[in-house]
């Protein structure tokens, strides 16, 4: 009889925990390309961080007015935020002021020291691993003031930040040909299965489509104009399998599907020819002479 009661108690406890879990945990989703910074702007007191985008969600913590927070994504009138290392929750968007001009970057060093000020004479307060995404609040004189681990502020050498763009072919990181100034103006990303078309090609950066269709040796190609770190850039996606559904004038988000990898135009096999170019102005800059190609690996990593 006692054993039976114990079994019933265990079953009841499992049921209760299962019912409570949705309100007690928020799935992890650390800062990523497209994340930005916000500031807690309550008129008084602290801002509640909840486990769900609802006033009935469990209270996880409170953030004082003026705290910088990492904004992950907006759901209705709520922001999903990173408020601590591996700490995620929801706050009312009414009490968050977005910080304009901020952008996400990735750490490109093995371990990058975070200092209390802009310079090596300042104390080290933390170290960030390769590949971690941080939010750049401002930059100058070789140093960047960053937001990391949700609400932490520090300074890092700008030389070890990069890879701000999304990798354009999520299914594969095969490189058939690298960038070479003056002769090969992008990188050629091979198919996940050699010779087989169809791998998804996605936008490396949010922006505006300025050309979409057939163009000489590019075959089916899409040009997307963006602003990155205050610089007008253009990304190109060539040798697509078919004409993209995207038309000139459309806006796209980073990671948005463009078309399938193909072998159109002057191509020796299935691959994506991916270019990053610095535009000479904020105009559409469709002609080659209106932009300067640069090594895409200065901007993307896989």
Characterise this structure.
With 302 residues, this protein is mainly beta. The protein has 2 domains: 29-162, SH3 type barrels; 175-298, Glucose Permease (Domain IIA), CATH 2.70.70.10. The chain is 8% helix and 44% strand. It is built from 1 helix and 24 strands. It has one helix at 2-24, and strands at 36-40, 47-50, 59-63, 68-75, 78-84, 87-92, 96-98, 103-107, 111-115, 124-129, 133-140, 143-148, 152-157, 161-162, 175-177, 187-190, 200-202, 207-215, 219-228, 231-240, 251-252, 257-260, 271-279, 291-294. Strands 15, 16, 18, 19, 20, 21, 23 and 24 form an 8-stranded antiparallel beta sheet that branches. It has a 5-stranded antiparallel beta sheet with strand order 6-5-4-1-7, with no helix packed on it. A 5-stranded antiparallel beta sheet has the order 13-12-11-8-14, with no helix packed on it. A hairpin with a 3-residue loop joins strand 18 (207-215) and strand 19 (219-228). The N and C termini lie far apart (59 Å). Mean pLDDT is 87; it is low at 10-28.
Ordered list of secondary-structure elements with their pairings:
Blueprint: H1 2-24, E1 36-40, E2 47-50, E3 59-63, E4 68-75, E5 78-84, E6 87-92, E7 96-98, E8 103-107, E9 111-115, E10 124-129, E11 133-140, E12 143-148, E13 152-157, E14 161-162, E15 175-177, E16 187-190, E17 200-202, E18 207-215, E19 219-228, E20 231-240, E21 251-252, E22 257-260, E23 271-279, E24 291-294
Antiparallel strand pairs: 1-4, 1-7, 2-3, 4-5, 5-6, 8-11, 8-14, 9-10, 11-12, 12-13, 15-16, 16-23, 17-22, 18-19, 18-21, 19-20, 20-23, 23-24
């Amino acid at each position: 009889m006692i054993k039976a009661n114990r079994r019933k108690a265990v079953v009841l406890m499992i049921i209760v925990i299962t019912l409570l879990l949705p309100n007690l945990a928020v799935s992890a989703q650390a800062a990523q390309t497209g994340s930005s910074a916000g500031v807690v702007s309550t008129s008084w007191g602290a801002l509640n961080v909840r486990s769900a985008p609802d006033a009935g969600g469990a209270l996880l913590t409170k953030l004082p007015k003026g705290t910088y927070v990492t904004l992950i994504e907006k759901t209705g009138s709520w922001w999903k935020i990173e408020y601590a290392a591996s700490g995620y929750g929801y706050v009312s968007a009414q009490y968050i002021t977005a910080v304009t001009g901020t952008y996400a970057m990735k750490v490109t060093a093995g371990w990058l020291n975070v200092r209390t000020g802009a310079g090596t004479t300042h104390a080290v307060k933390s170290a960030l691993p390769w590949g971690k995404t941080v939010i750049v609040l401002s930059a100058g004189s070789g140093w960047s003031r960053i937001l990391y681990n949700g609400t932490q502020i520090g300074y890092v050498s700008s030389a070890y930040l990069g890879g701000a763009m999304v990798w354009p072919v999520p299914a594969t990181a095969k490189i058939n040909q690298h960038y070479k100034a003056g002769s090969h103006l992008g990188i050629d990303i091979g198919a996940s299965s050699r010779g087989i078309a169809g791998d998804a090609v996605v936008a490396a950066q949010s922006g505006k489509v300025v050309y979409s269709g057939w163009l000489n040796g590019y075959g089916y190609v899409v040009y997307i104009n963006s602003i990155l770190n205050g610089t007008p850039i253009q990304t190109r996606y060539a040798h697509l399998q078919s004409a993209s559904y995207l038309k000139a004038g459309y806006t796209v988000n980073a990671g948005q599907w463009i078309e399938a990898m193909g072998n159109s135009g002057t191509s020796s096999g299935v691959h994506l020819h991916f270019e990053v170019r610095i535009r000479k102005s904020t105009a559409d800059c469709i002609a080659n002479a209106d932009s300067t190609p640069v090594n895409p690996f200065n901007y993307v990593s896989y």
